[in-house]
Amino acid sequence: MLECIFVGSGFAFAAALQPGPLQTYLLSSVAQKGWRRTLPASFSPLLSDGPIALLTLLVLNRIPETMSRILQSAGGVFLVYLAWASYRRWRQPNVTERETKGSVPRTLVQAAGVNILNPNPYLGWSLVLGPAFITAWHQSPANAVILLIAFYTTMVIMLACTIVAFGTTSILGPGGRRVLILVSAVTLALLGVYQLVAGLLIRFAAS
């Protein structure tokens, strides 16, 4: 159970801090409407991830277990790559958020639409959450449920904190953002090594 909480909450924490379309939308929306009116958008992954998760799990359930373990190892490599990218961003002397141009989604449903067109959830479910969910389900269905609860609870909380931080810049200045980027890099690296080692060990044990 603790393993599921670690993987779910750790990946959600790091994913929420990674730059992407959803984070860009949040920044743009806060700038135009304020953080209070943007706060409901923190629940958008609960709406957008359902079809992504269902499609991914249907595919993963039809492939051999060996391929599932290979995907788990690939997920570890993917997380280590994200950790390296975050570390490179942390080394930049000035870490700033980019302003966006154009129209901004105005509702929770539209925010979910932004996220469902975002490639990050597909990669996350295919390489990290999907294999982890299937492994947890084989151990116990309760473990799989705990994994999802840990992931989405942490994701919603982190997105809500991001929205508040964007709206109250005195709370999170450039120095604070740099610290969060470094924490994200370390978390991604730990998760990546864990996924990679776990996938390789299980493959060797099965062979």
Structural account:
By secondary structure, the protein is mainly alpha-helical. It has one domain. Helices cover 81% and strands 0% of the residues. The longest helix has 33 residues.
Summary, kept brief:
With 207 residues, this protein is mainly α.
Give the strand content.
Answer: under 5%
**Biggest pleated sheet:** none
Please state the average pLDDT score: 76
SSE series: HHHHHHHHH
Segments where pLDDT lies below 50 for 5+ residues?
A: 96-105
Number of domains: 1
- Percent helix, as a range, is over 70%
Total number of helical segments?
9
Number of strands: 0
* End-to-end separation: 26 Å
Please tag this protein with its features.
207 residues; 9 helices; globular; mainly alpha; 0% strand
Topology (SSEs and partners):
Blueprint: H1 2-17, H2 21-33, H3 35-38, H4 44-61, H5 65-91, H6 108-116, H7 119-139, H8 141-167, H9 174-206
